[in-house]
Amino acid sequence: MEERALALAIFVLAYLAIVTEIVPKTAAALLGGLAMVVLGVVDQEHAFEAIDLNVIFLLAGMMVIAHELGRTGVFQWLAVRTAKLARGDPTLVLVLLCLITAVGSAFLDNVTTVVLMVPLTLFLARILSVEPVPFLIAEVMASNIGGVSTLVGDPPNVVIGSAADIDFLEFIVHATPVAVLVLALFLAAVYLLFRPRLRAANPVRESVMEIEEAELVTDPRLLRVAGPVALATIVAFLFHGALGLEPATIALAGAAVLIVAGRVSIEEALREVEWNTLFFFVGLFMMVQGLAEVGLLSDLGQALSDVSGESVGLAAMLVLWPAVLLSSVLNQIPYTTVMVPAVGEMSRALAVGEGAQNPLWWALAFGVGFGANLTTVGAAANVYVVNVAARAGYRIGFVTFLRYGALVTLVSAVVASAYLWIRYLAS
Q1: DSSP symbols for 290-359
Q2: 94 CB-contact burial (10 Å; exposed 0-12 / middle 13-18 / buried 19+)
Q3: What is the mean predicted confidence (pLDDT) over 115-137?
């Protein structure tokens, strides 16, 4: 009991420090994780094993690739093409960027997509003379929504698909309809809510239309190397299962090839990595492992199973709604990893269908996917965007993100609940 109270106290204190930002959030997460080890809640070996290196190395590799692409000017070129397509209307630009981000997240994964989209977005906001924070928040939310739709769109989906034996096509058939519906509502809300705030003066629009985007490509030689490497990396992501390689391995391979072929110094490549983001996740994974080690998370799964009784419908809602709330606090990846065995036990106890026909797996996938939009720490993509924005001089605070995310998450969860009930539970 003492260990449980200690683990919970460490987590709550660290999380309060992250939310209030009384200390840098990376320092708070690392101190929380180390406190779990030093105070004996979790041993060092288990704490380090809990660090998901697939997430860490995927981020690191894609940061290098995205930065080298950025040096070529290709993001500026894409930004101007997007702005011209929207005829310089910032609201339409925002909707287009969200749509591109959501579709990209479905086939790459949301982390990779935002790593590629953020430089483009910051440049676009600059040339349109608008505040970039609404763009960045809306984009990362679109990436989380789009990521729900496929097996490779979100790291938790890979964990769920593996545990439940759900393949790529089955994931599309079952998850894409609700993701498309939520995305349509989200894009409509973005257009209506942001249109009054995002108005570019006519001179700004005219200046955007006059930009010669071809002149923005500043390093064609590097682009001839970085472009094919980035494209090959993206294609490899799509077929990573057939290749037998984790996305992290592919990202690191792409970064290594680019460093060699693009004649990039290793020192420069290491400077391109957002170490703040990576070490934040190191601390977070260690803290969550502390909660798991003392049995708090397994007890949660057992409690949900006990409360649901023999009702599959109640069980689905008890999986979905806590997943929405808790994954946004614990981060969706460690939460999913811990909850998968609990959902498996609930499924066996209730004798529901296997694989893709089991509504409990979809309740978990939708809960952690849509719940990621509630807080800045809900998903790896959120953390990355917040840190990059801060480095560019734009602060996205926990409360600011929550103000946007609460409504988006609530509507998404209600839509997901209705979808689950109509498709799997009503008959």
Answers
A1: HHHHTTHHHHHHHHHHHHHTT-HHHHHHHHHHHHHHHHHHH-HHHHHHHHHHHHHHHHHHHTPPPGGG-H
A2: buried
A3: 85
Question: For residue 228, what are the domain limits?
Answer: 2-425
The pLDDT tens digits for 325-347 are 988 887 787 778 778 877 887 88
Residue 356: closest CA among 176, 178, 179, 171: 171
| CA 421 vs CA 185, 202, 265, 427: distances in Å | 19, 48, 55, 9
Instruction: Tell me the C-alpha distance between 230 and 245, whole Å.
Output: 17
| Contacting residues for 402 by C-beta, under 8 A, at least 6 apart | 374, 375, 376
The 10s digit of each residue's pLDDT in 172-196 is 899 999 999 999 999 998 888 777 7
Q: Is 260 exposed, middle or buried (CB count within 10 Å of its CB: 0-12, 13-18, 19+)?
A: exposed
The total of structural domains in the chain comes to: 1
**96 φ/ψ angles, rounded to the nearest 5 degrees:** -60, -45
Whole-angstrom Cα distance, residue 224 to residue 203?
A: 35
Q: What is the DSSP string of 243-296?
A: HT--HHHHHHHHHHHHHHHTT--HHHHHHTS-HHHHHHHHHHHHHHHHHHHTTH
> d(Cα 32, Cα 11) in Å, to the nearest integer?
6
Q: Please give the Cα distance from 130 to 237 (Å, whole number).
A: 34
Q: Which long-range contacts (CB under 8 A, 24 or more apart) does 310-316 make?
A: 310/350, 312/350, 312/352, 312/359, 312/360, 312/425, 313/421, 313/425, 315/346, 315/350, 315/360, 315/363, 316/359, 316/360, 316/363, 316/420, 316/421, 316/424, 316/425
Cβ 317 vs Cβ 98: under 8 Å: no
Residue range 221-243: average pLDDT? 84
Q: Which amino acid is at 10?
A: I
